Amino acid sequence: MNIGIWVDWICIGAFAMSGVFAARDRKAELDLFGVVVVAVLTAIGGGTLRDIILQTPVFWLTARDQIYCPILVGVLGFFLTRSRRHHRLDRPVAMLDAVGLAYFTVMGTQKALLLGAAPFIAVLMGLMTGVSGGMMRDAYTGQVPYVMRRNTDIYATTSLLGGVVVVLLPGSLGLWLGGLVCFGLRMAAIRWKVCLPSARW
Question: Which positions fall inside the Glycine transporter domain (predicted)?
C-alpha cells in the first residue's frame, strides 16, 4: 500500500480524534451520532470546502476511505472519552493534531498551486484546508471558533506561515520546510502559550 495513503489516514484520524476531544472539553451534549459528525467535520471539512472553491472533485468522493476513516475514529473516540483514563491521551492527541495541521496545510497549498492558483490564493487554500474543519466543529457545537478566540494558542497563524514557506521555496523542499515550520510553531505555541493580541471590547 502507498505510504501516502497511510499518512492520509493518520492525519485524518488525528484531526477526527482532536475534534472528539475538543467537543468533550467544551461539554457538548452529543450522542454517538453527534460525536461522529463532529469527527467527520473536523477531519474533512476543510478539504471539502477547498475543493468546492477550487471547482475540483471533492477528494473523499473519489477516495472513499477518507470518509470511512473519520467515521470509525469518531465511534472509537466516543467510547474512549467515556473511559476514566481518557485525559491521558490529551497530549498525544494535541501532538497528532499539530502533525495533521502541518500536513493538510502543505497539501492544500500544493493542490491549489498544481491547479494553477496564484501563490496568495494557494496560501489561503492551505489555511482553509488546515483550519476550516475545526471552525465547522466549533460552530456545530455552539462555540466561538478556537482559531478566532482570544487568549488561545496560535493555530491559524502557524498554518498561514507554513503555507507561505511552501509557495516561496521550490518543490519538495518547500513542502518539508513548510510542514516543519507549521508543526514547530504549533508545538511551541502549546508549550509556551503563545497567543495573538486580543480585542478589548
Answer: 6-80, 95-169
DSSP state of 180: H
End-to-end Cα, the chain, rounded Å: 53
Q: What is 34-77 written as a DSSP string?
A: HHHHHHHHHHHHHHHHHHHHTTS--HHHH-THHHHHHHHHHHHH
What percentage of the chain's residues is helix, strand, coil (to nearest 5)?
75, 0, 25
Report pTM.
Answer: 0.93
Q: What is the pLDDT of residues 153-186, one digit of tens each?
A: 999 999 999 999 999 999 999 999 999 999 999 9
> How many CA atoms does the CB half-sphere of 89 hold within 13 Å?
19
Q: What is the CA radius of gyration of the chain?
A: 16
